[in-house]
Amino acid sequence: MYPENYRYTKEHEWVLVEGDTGTMGITFHAQKELGDIVYVDLPQPGASVEQGKTVGSVESVKAVSDIYSPVTGEVIAANDELSTAPEKLNEDPHGAAWLIKVRLSNPSEINNLMSAADYQAYIGE
């Protein structure tokens, strides 16, 4: 359920690093806890993000939750499909419903993140 090649945060985000680009999203666990997602607020390309800092929010029928960046860098793409179809986060949080792509300014930061096994132990699955 949790891809082995992703790295995870304690705030329930994931990042897939390919070269100097990190694709990030929220985990299956996060979307399950939120319930039906109705709105996603994402930063636009060109914005700077910092590891551990808020980059946007996800709104569900239950609550609004901040999204925290797992890495530092510049946003190079945002998943615009989520603005019209936020429910995709409930359907495919580790795939098609990625949130943003970031050009990494400090790739070694991923060493601060959890592996899939560590994350599953953290959430008790």
Quick take:
By secondary structure, the chain is α+β, with helices and mostly antiparallel strands. The chain is 18% helix and 35% strand.
Please summarize the sheet with the most strands: 6 strands, antiparallel
Quickly count the helices. Answer: 4
CA-to-CA gap between the ends? 10 Å
Question: Which descriptor suits the 3D outline?
Answer: globular
Strand order of the largest sheet: 1-2-3-9-8-5
Instruction: Report helical residue fraction.
Output: 10-25%
Low-confidence stretches: none
- Give me the strand/helix succession: EEEHEEEEEHHEH
* Oligomeric state as shown: single chain
What does this structure look like?
The chain is α+β, with helices and mostly antiparallel strands and 125 residues long. The chain is built from four helices and nine strands, in the order βββαβββββααβα. It has helices spanning 28-34, 81-84, 88-91, 116-123, and strands spanning 7-8, 13-18, 21-26, 37-41, 48-49, 54-60, 64-68, 73-78, 100-104. The protein has a six-stranded antiparallel beta sheet. Strand 1 and strand 2 form a beta hairpin. The longest helix is centred in the last third of the chain and has 8 residues, at 116-123. The radius of gyration is 13 Å and the shape is globular.
What is the fold's blueprint, element by element?
Layout: E1 7-8, E2 13-18, E3 21-26, H1 28-34, E4 37-41, E5 48-49, E6 54-60, E7 64-68, E8 73-78, H2 81-84, H3 88-91, E9 100-104, H4 116-123
Antiparallel strand pairs: 1-2, 2-3, 3-9, 4-6, 5-8, 6-7, 8-9
